[in-house]
Specification:
Blueprint (H helix, E strand, L loop, with lengths): L3 H31 L1 E2 L2 E2 L4 H8 L10 H9 L10 H22 L1
Antiparallel strand pairs: 1-2
Helix pairs in contact: 1-4
Keywords: Membrane, Transmembrane, Transmembrane helix
Pfam family, one: Ifi-6-16
Subcellular location: Membrane
Length: about 100
């Protein structure tokens, strides 16, 4: 295949851009699924169970648990993007993978 190297580089770049777009939304939904919400840790969730059993209710400033709470409550720049932007990210991921598969042949 002519220009195989260029196709591979282009495919990787498009794939990485797509992943960068989708990652914040995926993280926001993941945190919601395990029990981190806009109002704090959801009662009865996995996050609440971990906070109670493993952390003894004490959250250390700067810990991954505190960061997860902050992200879910909107205290950091990571949040779910509007759905059209997320769809664009998914399309870019599919295009990137398709280009890489085509270049590998």
């Amino acid at each position: 295949m002519e220009h195989q190297k260029e196709f591979i580089i282009g495919g990787v770049i498009v794939l990485l851009i797509g992943l960068a777009i989708v990652a914040p939304t995926a993280l926001a939904y993941f945190l919601k699924a395990i029990g981190f919400a806009i109002h704090g840790v959801v009662e009865g969730s996995r996050a609440a169970a971990y906070q109670s059993a493993d952390l003894g209710g004490h959250i250390v400033k700067g810990s991954w648990f505190a960061l997860s709470q902050s992200v879910a409550m909107g205290g950091t720049c990571i949040s779910a993007l509007p759905w059209p932007v997320t769809v664009l990210g998914v399309v870019l991921i599919v295009v990137g993978i398709t280009v890489l598969i085509t270049a590998a042949k």
